[in-house]
Design brief:
alpha/beta; Alkaline Phosphatase, subunit A; Arylsulfatase, C-terminal domain; 2 domains; eight-stranded mixed β-sheet; four-stranded antiparallel β-sheet
Length: 506
């Protein structure tokens, strides 16, 4: 368990421990005396393994590592959908994507859905959201419970109205045209910076607006979302950060014996140098994200707000950097699903690392529980508050559930097994078609103890495990799906899962 303070070498150990305990107790008493603020920091496509605190010595994430050392870090947290919009609206509503009504990228969340922002308003919080949220509709005061909004399009327009200092004579990436340009271009295989200095980057502008909001509301009780777009493709980073990571710093992950047929066609033309360049660009972008997270937290500290602010850092989903031949997230492999999750509240939360399985849908219920706000009327997750109080929940999770309904695919992950079911009936429309776009139903089972890379499907040799995990998947659907009462009778387990996997977004 990491210490909150670093003892001076001249302190006797017993004296230091007594002093640290006294300080922790005093800080806890002060924090308990007033209701906290709330700051939710969100990244886009930040995979849990690209983090120094997670053991990745190549990742340049000193600010996030510092936050992790001050937090409870959930090292086995999994998103409930490996795509932006469904994942974000799931942890905004506390409902699994199929129940929130958002399972594909373009669907807007219905205005009448309960959200954590609405519940925090009921508890007296002033709510605001800045940055990328995938609401798929224009921002307006009151939408989804937010008093103040500056989301994607509005943020971009405000940024573009600022004076732009465009560097001259420095190679930089072209405009982003995914699926129109060759994949090596829109995935930034040349590891090129965005054509701006750091002070003029879009995310730097978002940082300044976040600082401004904190300055103007430091004496109020606020709940602020700040959502950075990095390290989403095309992996933006400023001119100053070029050459921080290069293709030579990386090797391409190996491809397994069963991977070839499922590699999307769009990645087939990437050569090894391209792949290493994409990885380098991603790491550069993650470094830029880390700098902005650090600056946000530093400003919170500067204003004297850090001690009484509950801070959460999380990503919407992970990302594949060449694993299984893919540079995307739209699948059920581990790198696409495991995301960083950290929770900090000085004096109330003692730092530690939790390895129990948790899900992103647990986060909204934890927020409302910790802030003593009214609970959401529908709860598909569970509060992680016991962990934050150095206890274990009465019923800790023994599996995670994720769904990607664009491909009619879902998975159950336990500490030992990964079970994936795909109907194979839906031709994907998001750009990641394979050579056989409708292969028919397939089931995969990976033994994570023996095969952590998920290379060898052992479903055929473990029918009892498959049957057990099928029933577990069906139970998650039947307990949460709004159409469960109309499930046709006398279907096989496979047919029933196929039935639930159909997208039903309004």
């Amino acid at each position: 368990m990491p210490n909150i303070l670093n003892p001076a070498p001249s302190f006797p150990r017993r004296t230091f421990l007594q002093s640290a305990a006294t300080l922790f107790t005093a800080t806890r008493a002060r924090a308990a005396a007033q209701k906290p603020n709330f700051l939710f920091l969100i990244a886009d496509d930040h995979a849990g393994y690209v983090l120094g605190a997670d053991g990745n010595s190549q990742a340049s994430t000193p600010n996030l590592d510092r936050l992790a050392a001050q937090s409870v870090r959930f090292a086995s947290n999994f998103c409930n959908s490996p795509v932006c919009t469904p994942s974000r609206q799931s942890f905004l509503t506390g409902q699994l994507p199929h129940a929130a009504g958002v399972t594909v990228l373009s669907t807007p969340l219905q205005d009448d859905k309960p959200t954590i922002a609405k519940q925090l308003k009921k508890a007296g919080y002033q709510t605001a959201v800045l940055g990328k949220m995938h609401f798929n509709q224009p921002a307006r005061p009151g939408l989804h419970g937010f008093d103040y909004m500056l989301t994607e399009n509005e943020l971009t327009r405000a940024w573009q109205q600022q004076p732009q200092n465009i560097p001259k004579g420095i190679p930089a990436k072209p405009p982003w045209h995914p699926f129109k340009d060759p994949s090596r271009i829109w995935l930034n295989a040349d590891d090129l910076p965005y054509p701006r200095y750091q002070s003029d980057m879009r995310s730097t502008f978002l940082l300044q607006r976040a600082k401004q909001y904190l300055d103007e509301n430091k004496d109020k009780q606020f709940a602020l979302w700040v959502s950075y777009q990095e390290p989403h493709s095309p992996f933006d980073f400023p001119i100053q950060d070029r050459y921080r990571f290069t293709a030579a710093d990386f090797t391409t992950p190996k491809v397994g014996p069963e991977d070839a047929p499922q590699i999307p066609l769009i990645f087939r033309d990437l050569n090894d140098a391209d792949k290493r360049g994409i990885i380098a660009a991603y790491y550069n972008s993650a470094r830029f994200l880390d700098a902005n997270i650090g600056a946000t937290l530093d400003h919170l500290q500067k204003l004297g707000l850090a001690e009484n602010t509950f801070v959460i850092y999380m990503a919407d989903h992970g990302y594949m950097l060449g694993q299984h031949g893919r540079f995307e997230k739209h699948c059920c492999y581990e790198p696409a699903l495991r995301v960083p999750l950290m929770m900090r509240w000085p004096g109330r939360i003692e730092p530690q690392v939790i390895h129990d399985i948790t899900e992103s849908v647990d986060v909204p219920h934890t927020i409302l529980d910790m802030l003593e706000a009214p609970p959401l009327p529908v709860r598909h997750g569970q509060s992680l508050r016991p962990y934050l109080e150095r206890k274990r929940p009465a019923n800790p999770r023994h599996h995670s559930f994720s769904e990607y309904l664009e491909n009619e695919e879902a998975c159950i992950r336990t500490p030992e097994w990964k079970f994936i079911h795909c109907s194979g009936k839906r031709e994907r429309t998001e750009g990641y078609k394979t050579a056989n776009p409708t292969p028919g139903r397939y089931i995969r089972l990976y033994n994570l103890k023996n095969d952590p890379g998920e290379f060898t499907n052992v479903a055929e040799h473990n029918p009892k495990v498959v049957a057990k995990l099928q029933e577990l998947m069906l139970k998650r659907f039947r307990d949460t799906h709004p159409d469960a009462s109309t499930e046709p009778e006398r279907m096989s387990a496979n047919d029933a899962i196929d039935w639930y996997l159909r997208p039903r977004d309004a």
